[in-house]
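To whoever is on call:

I kicked off a structure prediction for a single chain this morning and the downstream step that reads the tokens threw a length-mismatch warning. I double-checked the sequence; it's 326 residues and nothing unusual in it as far as I can see. Pasting both halves so you can look.
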Amino acid sequence: MSNQTYLPDESKILIIANQDIIDQKICEILTDADYNIDCLSEESLTEETILQAIEKSPISLIFIANKFTHFDSYELCKKIKANQKDLVEIPIIFLGEFESNNEKTKAFQVGGQDYICSPFNEEEIFTKVNTFLNIIKLQQKLEKATNQLSQINAFDPLTNLANKHYFLEYLEQEWNRCARERVSLGDGDYTMLSLIFIAIDIWENNQAKYNQPQEDQLLIQVAQTLKNRLKRPTDLLARYENNIFGIILPNTDSQGLARLMEVLFGQIKHFQEHNFIKFRLGGVSRIPSRAIASEILIDVGLEALEKAKNHQVNPLFLDSEEMDFN
């Protein structure tokens, strides 16, 4: 049979062996078959040193003897699976003589994925090793594909900004974070969360003159201009809808929001001169609370954006109260 290995890059198989020469033989079998092996012998081992060894190196698969002189292998398995450093996903195969079916059942109950009874059969060892390592490889491919798909689904292909779906997810995340901080700090201290909507309106008598490539190019230019003005890594700029951008501003109060709205309008208003368009900005600032859903920012922000239509020179509207931007 072929003993071809399927180890993910820079990974290895860890064998935690007792003093039994049969367990040591497994190390020899897998080493001779060119697997990347790290074999720990019982003489110098404690549960703590084993856990440290697993954490230090990327391990793909663990073999563990079912009996040790100085510690309980089943308890060790439970501790590995209870560890918070991504060890819970590592498959564990028990090795040794199982005196009863209860011992085999216990191996699964404590988190083991399989067992191999002595005397060991080389073909069985290679088959189980390759099966588990192939599963790991497939899981890694699936995780990579899922992450790539998430990236695709999170961004607008035209502007390369976050899309509406990600915008709403991030808003919910930041709302909940601020609400938790409010509880931990007390009602006397709180964190504000602000939001801006920016709409691009094409003049009605010029809509026929505007073709899609021109509109797309304008959206790209405006998106880049807005992006260049947002310096904090926690601020999120997104294409909320066709001609509407949204900005989420954690830790920003109403005064800071008003100043930023003026700055952003000053940066983009020159696009109005030759493009037969006009901008309007609506902003809202709130103290997040667990008792109120994050959608309140969306609803009030869109209301403010609608009310900004009434302002011709400086079409800015903050929350539900008019601001003197002149």
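Update from on-call: the warning came from a stale cache, not from the record. Cleared it. Sanity check on the structure: The chain has a mean pLDDT of 83.
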